[in-house]
Amino acid sequence: MGVSRLKPAGAEPARLTQQVACAGCAAKIPIQTLTRILGALPARARSPRVLVGPETWDDAGVYKMSATVALVQTVDFFTPMVDDPYDFGAIAAANAVSDVYAMGGVPKTALSVLCFPAETGDPAVLRAIVQGGAETLKEAGVIVLGGHSVRDPEMKFGYAVTGEVHPKRVVTNAGARRGDLLVLTKPIGTGILATALKRGRLPDPLLRAMTRQMRTLNRAAAAAMTAVGPSAATDVTGFGLLGHARNIARASRKTIRIWSQVVPYLPGVLEFAADGVASAGLLSNRESIDPDVAWAEGVSEAARRALVDPQTSGGLLIAVPSSKAERLLARLGRARVPAAVVGEVLARGRLPLEVLA
Fold first, then answer.
1. What is the dihedral of CA 254, 312, 30, 56, to 10 degrees?
2. What does each C-alpha distance from 184 to 222, 277, 351 come to in angstroms?
3. How far is CA 288 from CA 189, 196, 267, 326, 345, in A?
4. Which residue among 169, 194, 214 closes a domain?
5. Active site residues
6. pLDDT at residue 55, as a whole number
């Protein structure tokens, strides 16, 4: 679990996940606090060019430049959730561009955001982080134009990303329709596994599976999604599967039903959850989401925790008409993207979320 790419002979480098206060929780501000903060913002100036703003808690902002081009803009950075610095950089890059893919866009450029303990940090570690991010962005076809760095006792890294989308092909979280099915493209549980890693409890095979998934771009999943034509979509990150499903439900004025038994979980996630492994972000998400969900009696406590577990570089949650679901799954299968139908969209009910056993 050490920083293998940088390990000098006879030395054991410090673990990145022990250099941060909240590895595995993506360092997200609790949604309850964030809601109060955003309430202080002035009303957004009305402009026909703003196609997507902050009102619906969507994945990115969208600004219309012309009849055929709109900009998709997002920023995301966080503390390490793995020990290998190259992997951390790669994960941060895949996570940052994911918001653009979720909006149906194509990421084009990026600016890096770096916080680093300059007095105590190893420059070789920083170099590996930047290299991992740059090579992942190259794979995505994204050009790094520059960035900004500051001294900080806690390491953080990520990117501000700009993408393009046709103004009439923007995918938002506000278009889900009654009868849509929900397709999820990556198993969940990275936050629980990252917390187990920080506690020294994660076996190497599970670490490799978690890292491989977080480094995987959502590019192929987004291409399949846009080819079929979704009703709505989001990527599953810091607010967990249920938190992001709630955003779709609220923005679309619908209720979303999740079938917990068919949700794909990474190996070991339910076992760790049952054993009490949970980050601060998971507990915060649970407190926020519980009032908005009707839990069926048969849903286990472990599943309840996993469903609100904050994800890093998670998959896409796609609302698609039932008539298109098989076509979407077939495209995802040909692209070797793991996917499962995990729920459905209902007419608006008393609560935005239902979870069945």
1. -30
2. 12, 24, 22
3. 18, 23, 26, 34, 21
4. 169
5. 25
6. 86
Q: What pTM, to 2 d.p., does this model score? A: 0.90
Residue 349's domain comprises: 181-356
Domain count, the chain: 2
- What is the tens place of the pLDDT at every residue in 31-42? 667 666 766 667
Phi, psi of 30 (to 5 degrees): -55, 140
Measured distance CA(301)–CA(15) in Å, rounded: 31
pLDDT tens digit sequence for 4-31? 344 333 333 446 775 543 444 444 676 6
Please, which residues bridge with residue 255 across strands?
A: 346
Residues 196-208 pLDDT 10s: 999 999 999 999 9
Instruction: Say which CATH number the domain at 52 has.
Output: 3.30.1330.10
- Termini Cα distance of the chain: 35
Question: Does residue 189 sit in the same domain as residue 137?
Answer: no
Q: Do residues 29 and 108 both lie within one domain?
A: yes
Q: Please return the burial class of 127, using the count of CB atoms within 10 Å of its CB with bins 0-12, 13-18 and 19+.
A: middle
